[in-house]
Amino acid sequence: MKTALRTVQHLVHVGLVAAVGTLWLGGTAAAQGEEEEPVVQAAQPEVASESKVSLGAGIDVGSAYFFRGIIQETEGFIGQPFLEGSITLYEADSGLTSASVTGGLWNSMHSGPTGLDGNNADPELWYEADFYTSLALGFQNDVETSLTYTAYMSPNSVFGTVKELAVGFSHGGLPMSPYATLAFEIDGQADGGANEGVYLELGAEAPIPVSADLPVSFSVPVAVGLSLSDYYEHPLSGEDSRFGFFDFGLIASVPLALPAEYGSWSVTGGVKFLVFGDTLETLNGDDSFQPIVVAGVSLSY
Hints:
Layout: H1 2-33, E1 53-62, E2 65-67, E3 70-73, E4 78-91, E5 96-110, E6 126-139, E7 143-153, E8 162-171, E9 179-187, E10 198-208, E11 217-229, E12 243-255, E13 264-276, H2 278-283, E14 289-300
Antiparallel strand pairs: 1-4, 1-14, 2-3, 4-5, 5-6, 6-7, 7-8, 8-9, 9-10, 10-11, 11-12, 12-13, 13-14
């Protein structure tokens, strides 16, 4: 009985070993015959971040050109192309919400006496070129302050270069978007007077409600220009005049339906009216009132 039992135990042991070996060999063969494929992660769509660089360009045309109420040209073609670029340096949700720098070039091209029709230096057409750079700080509720340096130059040498430093304030969160500009002449004079002046402009733009179905918007811009010191010097007496001009008008704007990749385009047009103080009336040929028809196209990207 012991011998038979040992024989049975031996056979069971051998059978278990053989079964385990067969399973191991079979698993190895299967592993060798079927290589495990690598796991490929699905590509995640990239989230487009808002650009911190923006560009703006356009051209305006008008029946006359007055700079802060001072006559520049009233005859012939007047075209005013411009180009600027901005870089956002900082953004936040509260407190100081943004900081940006802007640089640009604004021009005025004339075919009249101050341009092609006058005895002016080459390039005769190019009456004015203004180079400017600005630092702007934005706050909550669409409040913004800015510091801007501008060099007003005349490529055809009709006037001498004027350099200016201006402080700006605007509140886009209010219904009429009021603004103020305080400008200091640091070299040269816009009025051709004897002293550098200090200029203050206060303005706003009131939107006119229209049906949302209309592809046009209307607004009434208003502005007043004041001399705080020697900005509007009388050409005969040299006396400074506090009140320079009052400007108001009606402007229509129509966005162009172009694909977004081409930027945001709009066309504007309207009429503006200028009312002059005593000094500007004398400088402007004894005219106390001037209507101006304006139109333009602009691009932002």
